[in-house]
Amino acid sequence: MPRPTIAIPPEIEQWINDQYCYEHKTAEELVQALANEHDIEMTSRTLGRRLQEWGCKKQTRVNYTFELVSRFLILFYQIVLDDKTITYILNVEGMSISYSNVARLRQKLGIRRRVRAGDYDIAWEELIAIVEREFHEGMLRNYGRNFLYAHFRRSQYLVSRYRLWEAVGIVDPEGIALRTGDANRKRGSYEVPGPNWIWSLDGYCKLELVGIQIYAAIDAFSRMVLWIYVGISGRII
Fold first, then answer.
1. Can you tell me the distance from the alpha carbon of 217 to that of 193, in angstroms, rounded to the nearest whole number?
2. pLDDT reading at 156 higher than 90
3. Coil, helix or strand at residue 232
4. With contact defined as beta carbons under 8 Å apart, do 82 and 88 qualify?
5. For the Clr5 domain, which residue ranges apply (predicted)?
6. What does the pLDDT look like over 191-222, one tens digit per residue?
7. Are 90 and 68 in contact (CB under 8 A)?
């Protein structure tokens, strides 16, 4: 008759994975901890087999230096980037780190993207209060979704775009109605008496994050391109 399988709850499985892969605990240390802290009895051989089944592999230990942590906080809060993009930029800048270690650093700093199910109602009430305070103290009524999300992120409030916009809809429904009407406005036409009467200037900002700026100017009458600039951006990310 085969031996009964030792049941391990998902949260304990995650704890074992973290301790083995990132904290570099040995199987023997984990077996003792499981027995003492979680009342789960198993041999180190059984645990080793489970680790293989779960695909757990020891990760390279990362030294979370002050420079690395500071750069991460700038990229996360000020530039408003996700973990994948932060990982890419840190490696480009010579700070060798994996995606999982970036996520782990974020968690070590207490920056979590999700709210526990039991805390949802409290978090929602806090979000409404924060949005009301920010709208009362600042000039946020004219902000669109992207500017609004960036403002709250830079103020170190972690909330999804959907939840933030939902809260804004409760706090400032009139402002959303005004912005929606403005977005649906049709462009009019204008007449120019002749060349060099009006010059139109514009910039392409989507490449700023990779250090490239593009600006150009045209004559509104003839549509002739007067000048164009493509060069290195002064913006630091």
1. 18
2. no
3. strand
4. no
5. 16-58
6. 888 888 899 998 887 777 677 888 899 998 88
7. yes
Q: What is the DSSP letter of 197?
A: S
Question: Which 8-state DSSP code applies to residue 61?
Answer: P
DSSP state letter for 225: E
The residue assigned the tokens 């709850």 is: 9
Neighbours of 138 (CB within 10 A): 11
Q: What's this model's pTM, rounded to 2 decimal places?
A: 0.49
Encode pLDDT of 100-119 as tens digits. Answer: 888 888 888 888 766 666 67
| CA–CA separation, 228 and 226 (whole Å) | 7
Distance, in Å, from the CA atom of 206 to the CA atom of 214, rounded to the nearest integer, reads 9
Higher pLDDT, 67 or 23: 67
Instruction: Report which of residues 182 and 205 the model is more confident about.
Output: 205
Which residue do the tokens 């709210």 mark? Answer: 115
Q: What angle do CA 153, 160, 144 make, to 5 degrees?
A: 70
Query: What element of type H or E holds 180?
Result: helix 173-183
135 CA to centre of own chain = 23
3 or 149: which carries more pLDDT confidence?
A: 149
User: What's the pLDDT score for residue 55?
Assistant: 72
Spatial CA neighbour of 165 closest among 178, 146, 182: 146
Task: Give the 3-state secondary structure of residue 226.
Answer: strand
The token pair at 166 is 């939902």
Give the three-class secondary structure for 236.
Answer: coil
